[in-house]
Amino acid sequence: MGERALWVDDTRHNRHDGTREAGHDFALSVEPVLTAGGRRFRVSAFDIDSGLLIGRCEIAATARGDPPALAPAELLERVGGRYRLAALRVDDALLRLSAANQRVARFRAGRARRLRRWRSRMPAT
Asked: Within a 10 A sphere around the Cβ of 88, how many other Cβ atoms?
């Protein structure tokens, strides 16, 4: 059995200008897992904006072998909840800021090196 993706239906939460309201920006994927204790499903939650993994959990299958009927918000709480999604976004933003700061620092260091070389080539007065 292959992986089935269960995407959160956020079409009713979209504004008319095409942007999403806060809180409806994660995706869920469900894949069956056979364990010694029976059939289970591994649920993974992903941030739609960055594609980063929020968390994973395993849930028991129903008697018929189907995934239990849980709301997307309930599944998100099982994998870490909204606070985990917010923390993930903060971490991602800090990484991007750090990368930008490193680029600026490299540029400034190169500029300072070029200026020192230029000054060293100038005749002494």
From this structure: 20
State the distance between the two ends of the chain, measured CA to CA, in whole angstroms. Answer: 81
Q: What is the pLDDT of residues 29-66, one digit of tens each?
A: 888 888 777 788 888 888 887 778 888 888 877 767 66
Task: Give the residue among 94, 85, 95 at the shortest CA–CA distance from 55.
Answer: 85
For residues 113 and 101, give the distance between their C-alpha atoms in angstroms, rounded to a whole number: 18
Q: What is the DSSP string of 11-29?
A: GGGB-TTSPBPTT--EEEE
Question: What are residue 20's phi and psi, to 5 degrees?
Answer: -95, 150
Q: What is the mean pLDDT of residues 12-22?
A: 43
Give the DSSP H or E segment for 40. Answer: strand 38-47
| Pair of tokens at residue 66 | 């189907």
- Decide if pLDDT at 7 tops 50: no
Q: Determine the Cα angle at 69 with ends 67 and 75, to 5°.
A: 85
Spatial separation of the C-alpha atoms in residues 72 and 45, rounded to whole Å: 10
